[in-house]
Amino acid sequence: MLDLNATYEVITFAIGDTKAGSKMGKLQVRNLDDSSVLNCILWEETLNRLDSKLFRSNNHIRIISGTYNEKYNNCLVSDIALVEEAKVGLGEAQREELFNGIMSYVNKITDKKLSEFVSSLLFEYEEAFKITPAAKLMHHNYVGGLLEHTYECLEFADIILTKCNGKISPDVVYAACILHDFGKIFEYKVDMETGLIDYNDDFRKDWRTHSQWGFSICMNNGFKDIAKMIAAHHGRTDWGALIDLNDKDAEPFMYIIHHIDDLSAKFGKISITDIK
Fold this sequence. Notes:
Blueprint: E1 8-17, E2 23-31, E3 37-43, H1 44-49, E4 60-68, E5 75-84, H2 92-106, H3 112-124, H4 126-131, H5 145-161, H6 170-179, H7 184-187, E6 188-190, E7 197-199, H8 201-206, H9 210-220, H10 224-232, H11 255-267
Parallel strand pairs: 3-5
Antiparallel strand pairs: 1-2, 1-4, 2-3, 4-5, 6-7
């Protein structure tokens, strides 16, 4: 039976078209008591009655009325009440502080050509960079999440560089930290009102992933080592990497951004619930 007393957390929400041409909402929520996941359907009439802000990622809601379908694999919802509204992400002042922090690392890059290359990208796409999430679901999935993730990676880089015995240029590592996920400003789109994150279909027409974008722009500008680090940062090709680190010919420096990225994704401010 559907527990009408349970409080649920919004995971994802999307609106699509039915075969009849009407709108249909697909809502996935998590029960806060037992962490079970419930898949919900909302017909167009229900969507027209409800405020879209109800479906904000990480909102806590209660299902006021709804029934399971005959296969019990999803719930047809007809009414929802808001229990607690979630943040959409970092505030403007927080985002500005993080952007300035990232720029402080750009200023540490001693290679003038590389420093100008990185800073030109940051300033050209500053507005998008400041609001883009770092992922749809996996980590830093909120407005400003990419900024937070990038800055965490730079902080981890400072620690790891002390153990590299000068075998890798800090310039290269800092630039790779900043650019490894930069393509996500094109790959994702975020609704600033609801906080809902989705993929940008136009980006996917031309590019496989943000990694391919980052690899390509760095290669085209002559920064081959940075391009390789970006290509390898997902670790394995079946995880989205363009270069598989299980390859015996992978050079040692290629592993750095992979491990830095993984540390931030697992130990940083992973979701909006981490934001105070």
